[in-house]
Design goal:
The protein is α/β, with parallel strands linked by helices. Helices cover 40% and strands 16% of the residues. The chain has a seven-stranded parallel sheet, sandwiched between helices. Strands 7-10 form a two-stranded parallel ribbon. The termini are far apart. The structure holds uridine-diphosphate-N-acetylglucosamine.
């Protein structure tokens, strides 16, 4: 029986966690319904037991959790604009799926579940950096759905003793992130487009900022969260980020250097549901997990561009 279950194992973050576990010689089961996950992302994960199934199906959750000790729950429809266009799907794939998974985990005797939370929970509160004591202020259906999952985590620790740990991710990027959807993360889209000599589109004036976090830092944070003593982390929520922010305009300039792109960006109307600035206080993850972001933004971006160059992928799509 595998020790670990990774949900969303064919997605960007899930496949990266699964790969790190396999590299450490661990036994892993992965589950994905391929709504946003990609079969191509399973390349290199052949040692993982894989289930093609949907977490909105309680039986699939039971099957996935059987015999497992630790779950990394990365499956979601991870997009603010997608949730604005179709909030019911986001609810089904984030909230229903999470509750089903928790119920199955409890029934199967899973010891710990590490949950992919989202910085979107902070909404557009002007305070920077965002720290965990702040009241949540979700402003998109996606943020509501991810936050509901956080509350379920804490409740399952309190009432059933299942060890849950919530990691609030801040704009994760890196190799394997999907550039092909209208809902793709901005850096995946920009890297592919600019390498192909295509003009990227900045929504708004480009002065919005993000705490972009390289995938290796997120994987490391997850492994630390799985290993930390229960008395320190069970029922806890913490930011997982770099702890620095950069504007989209500055990011575009760095990408010009890294990709050789010579043009200007196009500017379009700001996106509905967008927040202006995002920056994490990462002291809680430092205190509770000993987390330190080993890869800074620029180095992460360099590695991502190199990976895109070396990995011919599908072309990116134009924004809607
Ligand atoms: C949000 C959440 C993040 C979540 C992610 C999932 C916040 C602060 N972060 O990220 O936790 O995991 O959703 O999708 O709420 N943009 C362009 N051009 C493009 C694409 C995007 O200018 O082609 C802009 C967007 O308008 C936005 C910024 O880039 O201002 C970042 O967008 P995106 O990568 O989609 O992530 P967030 O919405 O910030």
């Amino acid at each position: 029986m595998p020790k670990y279950l990774v949900t969303g194992a064919a997605g960007f973050i899930g496949r990266s966690i699964a790969a790190a576990l396999l590299k450490r010689g661990q036994t892993v089961r992965g589950i994905d319904n391929f709504i946003t996950g990609k079969r191509a992302n399973l390349a290199g994960l052949e040692a993982m037991e894989f289930l093609e199934a949907d977490l909105a199906d309680p039986d699939a959750c039971r099957h996935a959790c059987a015999g497992v000790e630790i779950v990394f729950h990365e499956a979601a429809l991870a997009s603010v604009p997608r949730s604005v266009a179709d909030p019911a799907s986001t609810n089904r794939n984030c909230v229903d799926a999470t509750l089903n998974l928790l119920l199955a985990a409890r029934e199967a005797g899973v010891r710990r579940l590490v949950y992919a939370g989202s910085s979107s929970a902070y909404g557009d509160a002007p305070t920077l950096p965002k720290h965990e004591e702040m009241s949540p202020n979700p402003i998109s259906p996606y943020a509501v759905a991810k936050l509901a999952g956080e509350h379920y985590m804490r409740a399952f620790t309190r009432v059933y003793g299942l060890e849950t740990v919530v990691l609030r991710y801040f704009n994760v990027f890196g190799p394997y992130q999907d550039p092909t959807s209208h809902y793709s993360g901005v850096l995946a889209v920009f890297c592919r487009k600019m390498l192909a000599g295509e003009q990227p589109t900045i929504f708004g004036d480009g002065e919005q900022s993000r705490d972009f976090t390289y995938i290796d830092n997120v994987v490391e944070g997850n492994l630390l969260a799985a290993a930390a003593p229960a008395e320190k982390v069970a029922g806890q929520m913490m930011n997982l980020a770099t702890g620095a922010r950069i504007t989209l305009n500055q990011t575009f300039a760095i990408l010009c250097e890294l990709t050789g792109y010579r043009g200007q960006p196009a500017y379009a109307a700001p996106r509905s549901g967008d927040i202006r600035h995002s920056l994490a206080d990462i002291r809680r993850a430092q205190d509770l997990l000993g987390y330190r972001p080993a890869v800074d933004f620029r180095e992460g971006l360099r590695r991502t561009v190199e990976w895109c160059r070396a990995t011919p992928g599908p072309p990116s799509v134009a924004p809607p």
